[in-house]
Amino acid sequence: MTETSAAPPARIPGTEPHPDSALDGVDAWWRAANYLSAGQIYLRDNPLLRRPLEKSDVKARLLGHWGTTPGLNFIYAHLNRLICEQKRNVLFITGPGHGGPANVANAWLEGTYSEIYSHVGRDEEGLRTLFRQFSYPGGIPSHAAPETPGSIHEGGELGYSLAHAYGAVFDNPDLVAATVIGDGEAETGPLAASWHSNSFLDPAVDGAVLPILHLNGYKIANPTILSRMPEEQLLKLLEGYGYRPYVVTVEDPAAVRQAHEDFAAVLETCLAEITAIQEPYRTGEKTAMAPDVPGADAVEQHAPRWPMIVFRSPKGWTGPAVVDGLQVEGTWRAHQVPLSEIHDNPEHLAQLQEWLQSYRPEDLFGADGRLVEEVARLAPEGDLRMSATPYANGGRLLQDLHLPDYADHAVKIDHPGSERVSPMFNLGGYLREVIRKNPSNFRIFGPDETASNRLQAVYDVTDKAWQQRIDELDEHLARSGRVAEVLSEHLCEGWLEGYLLTGRHGVFNCYEAFVHIVDSMFNQHAKWLKVSRGLSWRQPVASLNYLLSSHVWQQDHNGFSHQDPGFIDHVVNKKAEVIRVYLPPDANTLLAVAGHILDSRDRVNVVVSGKQPAPVWLDPEQALLHVERGVGIWDFAGSEGAGPGARTEPDVVMACAGDVPTLETVAAAALLKEQLPELKIRVVNVVDLMALQDPKEHPNGLPDRDFDTLFTTGKPVIFAYHGYPWLIHRLTYRRTNHDNLHVRGYKEEGTTTTPFDMAMLNQIDRFQLAIDVLDRVASLRSTQASFRQYLQDERARARQYTRDEGQDPPYITGWNLQEAEQDTPG
Fold this sequence. Notes:
By secondary structure, this protein is an alpha/beta fold. It starts with a strand and ends with a helix. GO terms for molecular function: aldehyde-lyase activity; magnesium ion binding.
């Protein structure tokens, strides 16, 4: 065992034996957890080995991951001892979540599992059920899934444990997130970035993360980088990240007592250091970061050096050492199922019997199968149990947000389009008040884009959290802040997920094109919500809110690389009851959508809005109604008549979803109304994209009767859409009038050019939309050839103007609905 530290720790590990017999209890707990873990992987009957194992006692399909599990059980047992002694709130985050047998085993030992799942009792029959259900049809997953008490981290996809941990402890001053990081997981990009999270942790108001880097040497089939790295280099790496690493190495797998002694001492030291770091900031003794290196310049302020543990133990520790003449324990062969031929190889069956009996289950479980009292009383009490902590069931802690009055921030207009306002800038004022009213349970996360996305009004009431040096020229940086910015979408997503799942609220704002970086993280969270919604014991949590701006139609200076609206397509693949997608057409509808999503639960809400000044089409009352409906007819933009009873069936429906497509649709309708006053045009705007879907597929879907009333059953529909056009077809393919639906959207045509040229490149511009109407209304195809030619010529003139002048024509940028006639060229 080795210990390294820049300053003397509270106790030097390994210098003296532990003074009491508590470690005997830790070892008993560890053996019991290992027995239950192996039993889950292998057994379907004979759970306590009352008789010699038979092939029929073993599952037909052997699934699970043994290799990381004994190390997880070891750490869990030691944490429990200190929880009992110190009464700390500890959240156990399992980075190698495929070690799910450990989480389930410990939850059963603590009694939490049987409290939640009464059919899995704390007796022999309960053990039989516990074993049989694992990785079994109709049972539970092999990973630390939502079904697992105490888990907020599935861990099937590696790389996110540390980010989740930091998100969990933000604004939770009494919480320690003990986070096991697998050495394979440590090779991932998100995890590598997550080490920087300590630069955002305020010791005065946040809890603490205790990273435990679990080095067992191998991934599925290869050695891991950090386990093979020379120890001096590894420690320098971790120290460079700003941590104070302590190393515990199991040199001899049989020297269990020494391993317990060493780990117990290091764990005590780390928790003592955490307390020592936090106390001065909480008592007011320290009010700003000060150097802890003698002689350092006082200007060189930096984050505290938090402790962490590097735990080296053999992969598959305590399992079969050798199988079929090949070394298993301590190698990649222990990763999943060490004995895989139970049904065909009698020697494997015998080895399984010997392995399970090595844990001495007769000393751990009584005649009725219950855990013996000497071991059972080692569990912490009530909510201090890591499997029962309310921090892992965040809905228990969730408090409603105090939301500002919508009317105080809505834009008043005289008529549609009379005001031009940046929707995101206006929203920034609203979010400023959300922060003011909710100073401890709401945060904004983003990759260095909060101001770029025009939300800078929030800095009137908060700063950006930052624990490293702050220079005089820096703006809006402080030790405490409600905005967390880091140039890693992975970290923003992981922090927010951890924050939400432990009972708080938040928003992730991002450039639309680059939110794709977290596609897979979104997948995992959406799946988590889908499953947890079906578990009565898991309380609803605040929704995951994506606020996407700097979108595809407003990336004229960044160009093609920043032009991608496809995140929406990715999102709508997930379970319908979890997903919502909003495309507010103006500032007031964005404001109404924001209030709605911040008040929602157990969902993923995606909101896409522009940040440049744009027309405000709906007054405050209309915007609220529009969001409530999700879709509606805009009488002011169409020409089919206004008011109840005055409407006849339109000749064409011009639909739109998204701010730029809406502007172009309204402008196209104005062109058509001027030239063809007899043409009956219906303009329909969609703000809730999922309203288009069949109600059998999505709870927000419009009933067929309502959809047909809006879009007709046989008239042409020209639909201008923010994203890839085929998504609209996919959402509406069951609708009566789908065959008459013609969608314009982004078709992967982009470059560094003007906004209107972008619209023309992808054929969602007003002239092309008007041409589409002429081409699809049968009575106009041969009668409006001259008008069609005029529209084509206008597209060409506008294109040439951008080439000649480097900007869009003034009659495009200055277009106003009320002045459409005189502003329209020609």
